[in-house]
Amino acid sequence: MTTDPQSGTNVQEIAAGIFRINTPVPLPDGSPFSFNQYLVVDDQPLLFHSGPRQLFAMVSQAIASVMPLERLRYVGLSHVEADECGALNLFLAAAPEAVPLCGSLAGMLSIGDMADRAPRTLADREELVLGGHTMRWFDTPHLPHGWECGLMMDTQTRTFLCGDLFTQPGSGKKAVVDTDILGPSEAFRHQMDYYAHAPQTAAMLAGLAQQEPRTLACMHGSAWQGDGASLLRQLSDAVSAAP
Predict the structure, then answer these.
(1) pLDDT digits (tens, 9 = 90+) for 96-153
(2) Around Cβ 181, how many Cβ atoms within 10 Å?
(3) Which residues contact 28 (CB under 8 A, 6 or more apart)?
(4) How far apart are CA 176 and CA 103, in angstroms?
(5) Closest-CA residue to 126 (of 141, 116, 136)
């Protein structure tokens, strides 16, 4: 459903109770790109990624098409970047009971100071029950970038909120696909490599593959459904082979 015709912002359910909010945004050279946020609707709703400040009006309108904005309880982020948490404080102002949700390191290094409310921090493999969904946190330092980086998965639907992993070019017009996203994401990475290539990258990807996700909720481009474990192992091989 398109919620803002001018920007093209749209919202669609990609798993039970989990909605992708997508806004097409051109890159500086004019090529198509997109920003996604993921809304987990539950007793204690979670928004993962706030989007940049400039997208707050469009993203909040999309949320309001699904549930009252003020019901938000958590605004989560993988790491500190504008598209992850640029509009964080705007959402905290709009949802009086919401708090930031991040890894322990992000809370200590940045969010504890930057955010207008103290964050709820999660340790590696810690779980947070939202109601019908239980979110499991994974510390992923430098994967793909950022010392404080972390990702999370809904253990009920096995939806992996995978942040900047599998970033795809284009507008992300299709909310969910089952076709190849590794090829396009790797082609995009080779143009502008945003991976830290840390010594533990392959091991972290292997650990994430063990969670056997069924839906990959990508921050840029389409979400993907299928054998997530296999795709994460293929990504590990591709990154490990990089010169």
Answers:
(1) 999 999 999 999 999 999 999 999 999 999 999 999 999 999 999 999 999 999 999 9
(2) 21
(3) none
(4) 27
(5) 136
Cis peptide before 68 (omega within 30 of 0): no
Cα(90)–Cα(82) distance, integer angstroms: 13
Number of residues that this document lists for the chain: 243
135: closest CA among 48, 35, 239, 226?
A: 48
Lowest mean pLDDT among 36-45, 156-165, 196-205: 196-205
Nearest-CA neighbor of 49 among 108, 100, 111?
A: 100
Return the beta strands (E) in the chain as ranges.
2-4, 9-15, 18-24, 34-40, 46-48, 74-76, 99-103, 120-122, 127-129, 134-139, 150-154, 159-163, 176-177, 215-218, 223-225
Q: Residue 198: is it exposed, middle or buried by C-beta count within 10 angstroms (0-12/13-18/19+)?
A: middle
Please calculate the CA angle 235-137-213 and round it to the nearest 5 degrees.
Answer: 45
The rounded distance, in Å, linking the Cα atoms of 67 and 39 is 10
d(CA 173, CA 79): 25
* Alpha-carbon span 79 to 88, nearest angstrom: 12
Q: What's the rounded mean pLDDT across residues 48-61?
A: 98
As a whole number of angstroms, the distance between CA 14 and CA 2 comes to: 15
Distance between first and last Cα of the chain: 42
